[in-house]
Specification:
This protein is α/β, with parallel strands linked by helices. Helices cover 25% and strands 24% of the residues. Strands 1-8-7-6-5-4-9-10-11-3-2 form an 11-stranded mixed β-sheet, sandwiched between helices. The protein is globular. The two termini are 24 Å apart. The N terminus is likely disordered.
Length: 314
């Protein structure tokens, strides 16, 4: 991937939050069905809902706990990996920090996310890591305004916190784990304030142009000047809200019954769940442009109880 003034528009597909939710739910269901005993040799139709866990297997039968983290579902990294040599792929990773994330913990979270992807794909490095900060969104209508607050800084992350997080990406680059690093949702004014705080400048700025047509001229010119490639996308910034996590893991018809119900009487985990981050990865075969491997990891915390790692691959 080359730095420069180009604007690459990604094909429109299922929005990332919908794709993430659906893939996690399908993965949980398949894992639970794999360990749920059949009745009289008959496997019952679930219609997208989970088997009745009061007569089937508890969540502990299809999840795994390791070093204080509960993997949902359990992951066999030995069976994952790519079909061809590493040199045949472009591997892109996007890391979404969620609103409840402690800015001081993001260096550790970045390392955790990249380590999971490298372990899943059985590779020593990735080609591009893009980071998305909570509360930061791109607004093409405000791009030409000289007032910085219209560029979202006052409503998003503090610039110092973003610069501190960026240093964690720079460290991964220095170690050879990441070839290029990039940002999401940065307009020209935010870039002008952010770039002086970096040692390794972003190769990519990924923006969500909601109207799908117009990229502001000011941003195009500034990106060209700084040799930053502009990419468009249709991801949500808050890709995994707290309510969605509770719905996925709770005791509703389509919940996985990992968390206890509202009355607290079930055998699930009890406590308030806070999603921390989501990482999305894609491995594209270079000479064919085909996505061979794609998936998500998501990390959440149950206060004073457990760390949860949710996984889906497809």
């Amino acid at each position: 991937m080359n730095g420069g003034p180009s604007i690459l528009r990604r094909p429109t597909s299922e929005k990332s939050n919908t794709e993430l939710t659906n893939s996690l739910r399908a993965n949980f269901l398949a894992s639970q069905q794999a360990v749920t005993p059949q009745t009289n040799g008959i496997e019952h139709e679930t219609n997208g809902a989970y088997p009745n866990t009061t007569i089937g297997s508890p969540y502990t039968a299809w999840t795994a706990r390791e070093n204080g983290t509960l993997y949902i579902p359990s992951i066999d990294f030995l069976t994952s990996g790519l079909a061809e040599e590493r040199s045949q792929y472009d591997i892109t990773v996007k890391l979404f920090f969620l609103p409840s994330t402690d800015a001081l913990a993001r260096s550790r979270h970045t390392q955790e996310a990249i380590s999971l992807v490298l372990k899943e794909l059985h590779v020593p490095s990735i080609d591009l890591l893009i980071v998305s900060f909570p509360g930061v969104s791109f607004d093409a209508d405000d791009e030409g305004d000289e007032e910085i607050e219209n560029d979202g800084i006052s409503e998003g992350d503090d610039l110092d916190d973003m610069a501190e997080t960026w240093r964690a990406l720079e460290s991964l680059h220095a170690k050879g784990l990441v070839a290029q690093i990039g940002l999401a949702e940065f307009g020209s004014e935010r870039l002008k304030k952010f770039l002086p705080n970096t040692k390794i400048r972003p190769s990519v700025d990924q923006i969500n142009v909601r109207d799908c047509c117009v990229v502001p001229k000011d941003l195009i010119l500034y990106a060209k000047q700084e040799k930053i490639e502009l990419l468009t996308h249709n991801d949500c910034t808050n890709i995994l809200p707290k309510g969605t996590v509770r719905e996925l893991l709770g005791t509703s018809e389509k919940g996985a019954s990992v968390l206890a119900g509202p009355d607290g009487n079930s055998e699930g985990l009890k406590g308030e769940v806070e999603p921390q981050w989501v990482v999305k990865y894609t491995a594209v075969v270079r000479d064919r442009g085909v996505i061979e491997n794609k998936g998500y990891f998501a990390m959440a915390q149950i206060m004073d109880c457990a760390t949860l790692c949710l996984e889906s691959a497809f």
